[in-house]
């Protein structure tokens, strides 16, 4: 009969199938979501080029409802990273196709940025073109880029030099209210008639300045003069109501006086001589 060896090691029990865990690395303990969840592709969650901040921001944006503001200012109020890091992360997401941002003009003249979140960006790389292309022209031979023309602005009914100078001075002070509204002399000369058209409609310079600088978009202004030209045209107030000139005051009706010379009655504020007697006295003297 065999004897039991108390010094022998107890063999390790095998784990149940499907319950084996790795010795290192993360261990997942998952539960199924039935509500309030977002499906995120591994191409974003495990992106090899995006920064960790960009990946996290991309996941956050895809979890939001449509219409939620995701501009830099709103995100900086939500997260502690600050505007600089958030702006860089948004640029990363846009560069890799997870965001698409376009600039549009609203009916009231404001320029806003429309942002589209793409949960599965497509490949936009164009196929290589092996056809023969002409060599690019040297930089010194290329024509200078044409400057885009500014939109037309209203014209005053009477462009007096003093009114136009007031308009130019007003435009020159806009940069004090917003540094992005720094205008060139050419732009100010183009916009001055539009400002003059506002001023001749009984508007004070402060009211015109407020209309041009209020509710500007948060994004950089690429063409501030074009934005001002649009506002001068789209928001032009109506002319003031017509006011007929006040009627002239009637001449006072003096009482009758008896002439001291001929005793003939005549109208005068005080007693004295009538017109004929005054003429006779003047001739005699």
Itemize the secondary structure elements and their pairings.
Layout: H1 42-45, H2 52-62, H3 72-78, H4 83-95, E1 99-105, E2 111-117, H5 161-172, H6 174-177, H7 185-199, H8 205-213, H9 224-234, E3 256-258, E4 265-267, H10 275-284
Antiparallel strand pairs: 1-2, 3-4
Helix pairs in contact: 2-4, 3-4, 5-7, 7-9
Architecture overview:
The chain has 285 residues and is mainly alpha-helical. Among the domains are: 42-117; 161-215 and 223-234, no CATH class; 257-285, no CATH class. It is 34% helix and 7% strand. The protein is built from 10 helices and 4 strands. The strands form 2 sheets. A two-stranded antiparallel sheet has the order 1-2. The protein has a two-stranded antiparallel ribbon with strand order 3-4. Strand 3 and strand 4 (265-267) form a beta hairpin. The longest helix is centred in the last third of the chain and has 15 residues, at 185-199. It is rod-shaped. The N and C termini lie far apart (178 Å).
